[in-house]
# Entry
Amino acid sequence: MKLKQLFIILPILAVICACGNKNVLRENLKQYPYDKYLSKVASADTKDKAKASALAEIRNIFATLPADKESQARRDNILSLAKIAKTWKVKQDDKKRYYAMAILERQSAMEALQPYYTDYDAKIESLTKKLNEEQDKFVRLKYALQMENLLEERKPLDEEYKILSYDATPYREELLYNARAAYNRAFYEIKISSKITGDEQETIKTPIIESLNTLGFQVGENLPEADIELVMKVYVDKYESKTTQGLNWCTSTATVNLKDMATGGIFATYSKTERDGSNRKETAQLRSLLAAGQDAALAVKQKVLEYLKRK
# Structure
């Protein structure tokens, strides 16, 4: 056979092998469709190595999720349901290449995960009922904070369930909807009236209001029938460096008082000063204001929550 003809035939053989392998894969996926099975295919120079590699690929489906001892034991239990569904070989360049398909049936895996939800969901249902029946809004908020902890602890299960399910539908979606609706109502019923004055107060006010809004509280200026009043003053001091020519300093100070409107008592105070320098006065001012605002936002959020937990 001429060399030129050999160069033509070899690519054709490779294409035939590749097409043959694609056909096998296509048929296997018909038998084990993606909506019902998680599947992984691996190849190696021996059948046993191919099978081991395919199972290893299946075991990696949770690799992107954080893991601790408890979650790893749970995932190992679920992944023990994986098995080798198919093996086949493809001849290429006078060598045999072995392929293996590992599968994990979605329904069986999801059913294996469901018992881990039992304790969480019983507590979540109980708290949802209490939230909907409790008349005191401050007691409701305490229940909501307990709910927040439970939902956070349940989240790793939800991430695993999402991977196992075909359409990423959460487990017991209605339970979650009702729990979150009750949780959101509890926060929304707390009103925080803000009074922020002083120099350049808008830059500092924004992160503080946003941090409280993210919790779900009603926050605004001069809110009627408010539960908490946030009084804040902002001071800005700009000056040139005495030691470095062209360097401008700006010091921004935020002082905060938080008052319980029912009792009239101040339950928390806070003061933070931030300094920044730049060759441009506006840059130094903006940086110091933003830093002071971010610090104040975190502190106010924590102090409000701590007070409401013990109220």
Q: What stands out?
A: The mean pLDDT is 89.
